[in-house]
Amino acid sequence: MVGKLALSTHDSGMLVEPGAQVMLQRGDMVLTYTVAGPEALASIVEHPEAIAHADGHLRTGVNTASLMLAALRSKDVRGRAMQAPHPRLRALLRAVGDAPYMSDGAQDLRFGLPDLNGQERWLRLDEIPLAPSTPAAWPR
Predict the structure, then answer these.
(1) Cα 127 to Cα 47: distance, rounded to the nearest angstrom
(2) Do β-strands 101-103 and 21-26 pair in parallel, antiparallel, or remain unpaired?
(3) Contact 70/98 with Cβ under 8 angstroms?
(4) CA dihedral 73, 77, 78, 82 (to 10 degrees)
(5) Alpha-carbon span 129 to 67, nearest angstrom
(6) pTM of structure
(7) Residue 4: band (very low, low, confident or very high) from pLDDT cuts 50, 70, 90
(8) Which string of DSSP letters, residue by residue, matches the chain?
(9) CA–CA separation, 13 vs 17, rounded Å?
(10) What confidence tier does 10 reach under pLDDT thresholds 50, 70, 90?
(11) For the chain, which terminus, N or C, has the lower number of CB atoms within 10 Å?
């Protein structure tokens, strides 16, 4: 889920405490999300269903991040995005610049970027070369 949540930060560094619930109205339905603590991570990522569908989840995550990156590079928000305390975000924004993007036959979002020879290539977000000093993507 991507969205704004205005709550104070706790001593643990989390935005909200584990067990807190966030409710969102969607049409005539109310969705309730319960915040899980760090101890829940292993039970989620090591679950057989998560493992069986890991490639699909990765593609979905990369495509979602690609769409977000495309939105953040718009002239109205790019300046603020470049001030965010996230070096990888800034590196990706610089790398894609105003390059065109499109969805390929597999429905992966790709950016048209020149390779070392100046030939345009269509790259997924996780294929874009970044400086070695750029922090790694999750998981670290």
Answers:
(1) 27
(2) unpaired
(3) no
(4) -130
(5) 18
(6) 0.69
(7) very low
(8) -------PPPTTS-SS-TT-EEEEEETTEEEEEE---GGGHHHHHTSHHHHHTHHHHHHHHHHHHHHHHHHHTSTTTHHHHHTSS-HHHHHHHHHHTT--EEE-TT--EEEEEE-TTS-EEEE-GGGS---TTSPPPSP-
(9) 9
(10) low
(11) C
Is the separation of the CB atoms in 126 and 134 below 8 Å?
no
Closest listed residue to residue 14, CA positions, set 32, 34, 36 = 36
* Closest to 86 (Cα-Cα) out of 19, 27, 134, 35: 134
CA 130, CA 92: separation in Å to the nearest integer? 7
The pLDDT of residue 14: 59
